[in-house]
DNA sequence: TTGTTGTTTTAATAATTGTTTAACAATAGA
DNA sequence: TCTATTGTTAAACAATTATTAAAACAACAA
């Protein structure tokens, strides 16, 4: 079970174009992740700006850090992401079967 | 397919304690939704404040409005929610089978 | 019409957030 | 050691966002 404040923090972290792009890139990358410099190059943001944003994502628990020499690798935290998604649909339609054509509800 | 800017708008809308609470309440409520005043009472926020926040959620496409006499009913837009959730997990792990124990990836 | 209920809008203020530049640390290789 | 590479931090500024109180509006009832 996730706390509301934690979810707000995660949503806030994703609610910014650069950070959303970083996170999506890392979701596609999978468990190996990607070095800070590679991410910055790919998304065309300055190193300082990238550092600022990955810090926010890290504090929100959405990505994790792995050091390797001079490189800092970041990877998506899939568990945190799934907990957040689950929170949004929790007890949807009060548990009754929905007449909606989607999977979540 | 959803545009990045649209997703940022939806995430921003949810990234606030009162609005997250409003949305979750409406997700549980289902298609019938809930009147503005009822929501305000339940969440203990002023009518003006509630109006401000539902406006943000409506502009983000996450909830819809239905007028009934003097009452204004709000209901969660499940399609918009699911599109947003799908965007976050799109092309997860580059499409390879993940060794993770969760459903999303 | 007049009053009452339900909701939204406006304006003012306070707080938070994002970007840029420059400086700083740590590692790797010559 | 010296130098280049990789990444983070700090400070300043601009822009956005949330809250409050007051006023306005809209629908209904007496």
Question: What would you say this structure looks like, in words?
Answer:
The structure is a homodimer of 105-residue chains. The first copy, chain A, is α+β, with helices and mostly antiparallel strands and 105 residues long. The first copy, chain A, has helices at residues 4-14, 17-29, 36-43, 47-59, 78-89; strands spanning 34-35, 63-68, 71-76. A 3-stranded antiparallel sheet of chain A has the order 1-3-2. In chain A, helix 1 (4-14) packs antiparallel against helix 4 (47-59) and helix 2 packs across helix 4 (47-59). The model of chain A has no long low-confidence stretch (mean pLDDT 93). The A-B interface holds A 4-5, 7-8, 11-12, 14-17, 20-21, 23-24, 27-31, 78-79, 81-82, 85, 87-94, 96, 98-100, 102-105 and B 4-5, 7-8, 11-12, 14-17, 20-21, 23-24, 27-31, 78-79, 81-82, 85, 87-94, 96, 98-100, 102-105. Chain B binds a DNA duplex (30 and 30 nucleotides) through residues 12, 16, 18, 35-37, 40, 46-53, 55-56, 69-72.
């Amino acid at each position: 079970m996730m706390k509301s404040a934690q979810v707000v923090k995660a949503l806030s972290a994703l609610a910014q174009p650069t950070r959303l792009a970083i996170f999506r890139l890392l979701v596609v990358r999978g468990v190996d992740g990607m070095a800070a410099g590679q991410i910055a190059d790919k998304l065309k943001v300055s190193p300082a700006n990238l550092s600022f944003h990955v810090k926010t994502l890290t504090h929100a628990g959405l990505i994790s850090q792995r050091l390797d020499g001079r490189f800092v690798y970041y990877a998506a935290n899939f568990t945190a992401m799934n907990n957040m998604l689950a929170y949004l649909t929790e007890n949807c339609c009060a548990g009754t079967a929905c007449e909606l054509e989607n999977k979540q509800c």
